[in-house]
Records
---
Amino acid sequence: MLGVKRGAILLSMLVIGGAAIAQEIGHAIWQERLLILIAPSAEDPAVARQKQALRDAADAVAERRLRVIELYAEPEGSDVTQLPQERQRAIRQSLGVAVGDRELILLGLDGGIKRRASLATPLREILQQIDGMPMRQQEIEDRRRAGLPVTDP
């Protein structure tokens, strides 16, 4: 019940922050976990390392229903996974992220912030944290009962 309340509170904050946030993040509640990469530029070396780690662990990322959102202060160098600047500003405001910040934010299925950390945080740590979450533990158990493999972080 507490998770539902936190999700509802975050969703309310996101809706108040703008329709763009509700579209990009609000719909993910109970469907996806979100990893938000925040940097001044898409050319940031820590972003490049995270994106490579995400590609290398694509199966583990998909199994954990982890979607990545990238927020950059500079529109140059953006790629198809980056949100339009207007939406980025709204998300930054709702999460209390300054333009020059370099961090990552992990949102759980309930929409709550589970981690705010350095952009250089190893992806393995993030995946291990997700694996320790109660809803992920249930997903793991469900996969095992169904005879499906569980991908290590």
---
Amino acid sequence: MNSIILQLAAKYLRWLFIIFAVLALIRGHNDPGGGFIGGLLAGLAIVYRGLAYDTFQVKERMQNIPEWFIAGGLFTILLSFAPSLILGNTIMTGVWLKIPLPLIGELKLGSPFLFDIGVFFTVIGVTVMFVFSLTQKR
């Protein structure tokens, strides 16, 4: 498309989508769907830019990035299995690390959050790859 209004909106809405994607990821890691919904929002931020400008320009700039997002996300998902296996628990058992921070309190990092980060990046790659394959000329 060649709409100036859509291009201007894409410039600012892209960052809004990314902010909401990260918020969904952080908020949702203890609830179902945090990584998936956040990944969809972040993927749509990339796709929206392609719709506003030219899909082929965005695809050229990204080259193999969707594949790297998928590979990195799947690797992170596999990495999230390691803490439970190292501790002798069954696979995908949640393991948390509590870090005391001055003035803030306690920061809890867990393997479920690492799993959600992996889902987040995998969904970004799949969303971008799917939409770009729909716009591909034959």
